[in-house]
Design goal:
The protein is α+β, with helices and mostly antiparallel strands and 305 residues long. It is built from eleven helices and eleven strands. It folds into two domains: 182 residues, no CATH class; 110 residues, Homeodomain-like (Arc Repressor Mutant, subunit A, Orthogonal Bundle), CATH 1.10.10.60. The longest helix has 21 residues.
Length: 305
């Protein structure tokens, strides 16, 4: 697929960012959560748009209708509707119908990084027209606001809609401040498409964290991210200083520690939740990493509270 690019004019950047603050009904805000589920046939790759989110991605349709496909659900978005895709979620952007044109903006929020990509799908060409991405440079931790937005959309406690609007307004204000101060650079697609970039490796780690109860065999995860098992192992060692297996075990242990401290799950249930269906294997692995059994660790945490 050929992808064309050009810079987004300043006035359009302002409008794109301001669109985040549009008043929306509660039914116009959606979340694609990183839950521990296996891939399913709901995701069928038909373009180069399919990838695993390495940060929080906000999709906002401007014209027409677009479709974001995840393993769990197909989101059919109309103008003004907003979808937040959590890190670790495999997804693909597609037209709602092959004959229907659409325009969509995608904001990528990762810690202090904020960037925007615009896509226009033209059915007569049968390819997306991608306007070159823009990155907004600044010191604010926008990733925290994105994570809070994710929580609000997930839990939907009383007042969630108002909280969502306020958080979106904060994100827009922070990005606009960067734009108006001249702290904006233009990107090519190399960064997001390069399979050797660190964000892709971090996305693999996030995917593992979201799917701890499953086996997470290196070969399966490597295939999902387009690597050979050996190369994925080298990348994990270079990025984290750990083998793939050690990194996954660390994620399981950290998750188990949190559940033993903050949840009412039994020790056996905690083991299942983090990928150890056999209680004996869970206890052995936990003792090796923490130095005590899960039961002793939970008792010590309870006594401290």
């Amino acid at each position: 697929m050929t992808v064309k690019q050009r810079p987004i004019p300043f006035r359009l950047l302002e409008q794109r960012v301001s669109d985040l603050t549009t008043e929306r009904n509660a039914d116009d805000c959606f979340l694609a959560p990183a839950t521990a589920t296996r891939r399913s046939s709901a995701t069928t790759a038909t373009s180069a748009n399919r990838h695993v989110a390495w940060c929080h991605e906000f999709f906002l349709v401007r014209k027409g209708r677009a479709k974001i496909v995840t393993p769990r659900r197909r989101f059919r978005l109309r103008p003004g509707e907003l979808l937040l895709v959590e890190p670790g979620v495999e997804h693909e952007e597609l037209p709602a119908s092959p004959t229907d044109p659409y325009e969509i903006s995608c904001f990528l929020i990762d810690g202090r990084r904020a960037s925007l990509w615009d896509v226009t799908y033209a059915p007569q060409n049968q390819e997306p027209y991608v306007q070159q991405g823009s990155e907004f440079v600044g010191s604010e931790n926008l990733g925290l606001a994105a994570a809070l937005l994710s929580d609000e959309l997930s839990e939907r406690h009383e007042g969630w809609h108002e909280a969502t609007q306020l958080l979106l307004s904060y994100l827009a204000s922070a990005i606009l401040r960067r734009l108006r101060c001249g702290s904006v650079t233009y990107q090519t697609s190399t960064y997001s498409r390069d399979p050797h970039a660190w964000p892709r490796v971090e996305a693999a780690s996030m995917f593992c964290h979201a799917n701890l109860k499953h086996p997470l065999r290196r070969a399966s995860v490597a295939a999902l991210f387009g690597y050979s098992p050996r190369h994925l192992g080298r990348l994990f060692m270079a990025r984290y200083g750990q083998t793939y297996s050690d990194h996954v075990r660390m994620l399981r242990t950290e998750a188990a520690m949190a559940l033993l401290t903050d949840s009412n799950l039994s020790v056996a249930e905690v083991g299942v939740a983090v990928g150890y269906p056999d209680p004996a294997n869970f206890s052995r692995a936990y003792r090796r990493d923490v130095g005590v059994s899960p039961s002793v660790y939970r008792r010590a945490q309870t006594e401290r509270q």
